[in-house]
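Chapter review: from sequence to fold.
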Amino acid sequence: MPVSRSGDSGAVRGVVLDLVQVSSVDSAGLGVLVCGHRRARRSGPTLRLTGASDQLQAMLSVTGPTEVLEVFADVEAATA
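The token string follows.
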């Protein structure tokens, strides 16, 4: 879901990826998230993650992507 549109250009400023139904992510999935973030950042928008379970947040913290990815409690927080 697009975070918001800026001005008259209609450019997407960011994308929110809601992980509420995701129970775990393997190394390939983590790689996709980090790659997606890097690609988005190069073209301007941000990639924001929301709804990660406690287990998934712990895994993200241990493996390091939270140093690169923005993680929010819910969609409302990510779009504020």
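Two observations follow directly from the output. The radius of gyration is 13 Å. The beta strands are 5-6, 11-12, 14-18, 46-50, 70-72.
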